[in-house]
Amino acid sequence: MQTETPLFPAPMPRLPHPGQRVRWRHPEQLRWLGWEEAYGHGPFEVVGLVDHAALDIPSGVVLKTRRGEREINEVWLELAD
Q1: Residue 54 gets which letter from DSSP?
Q2: Are 76 and 34 in contact (CB under 8 A)?
Q3: CB atoms within 10 A of CB 29
Q4: Phi-psi region for residue 56, left (φ > 0), alpha (ψ -120 to 50) or beta?
Q5: Three-class SS of residue 64?
Q6: Contacts from 54-58 at CB under 8 Å and sequence distance 24+?
Q7: Are the C-beta atoms of residues 42 and 22 closer than 8 Å to each other?
Q8: What are 10-50's pLDDT values in tens digits?
Q9: Cβ(57)–Cβ(44) under 8 Å?
Q10: pTM for the complete prediction?
Q11: Which residue in 11, 51, 45, 6 sits closest to 29, CA to CA?
Q12: Strand 68-73 to strand 44-50: parallel, antiparallel, or no bridges (unpaired)?
């Protein structure tokens, strides 16, 4: 059984739906991922989901960011509300 670590986070227990807000699961990682400047700190409004099951990877969550709509893998996010 895989345990969650910041390098290998688990998928969200429950995917958000459009209109919900999410935030970074591990905000301390924003700088080394290069996302702090690009996307902001959040929380972010969810505008959609992208199913990547055919690729055997977790779903993408489409967010409203300071650079427009961006898809972020669900493993980096958690519900904000």
Answers
A1: G
A2: no
A3: 15
A4: left
A5: strand
A6: 58/11, 58/12
A7: yes
A8: 899 999 999 999 999 888 888 788 888 888 888 999 999 99
A9: no
A10: 0.84
A11: 6
A12: unpaired
CA angle 66, 18, 64 (to 5 degrees): 5
End-to-end C-alpha distance for the chain, whole angstroms: 29
Identify which has the larger pLDDT, 1 or 45: 45
Instruction: Order the strands of the 68-73 sheet from edge to edge.
Output: 68-73, 60-65, 44-50, 21-24, 77-79
Check: CB of residue 79 under 8 Å from CB of residue 20: yes
CA 76 to chain centre: 4
- Domain chopping of the chain, boundaries: 21-79
- Please say whether the beta carbons of 34 and 40 come within 8 A: no
Amino acid at 61: V
Strands 68-73 and 60-65: antiparallel
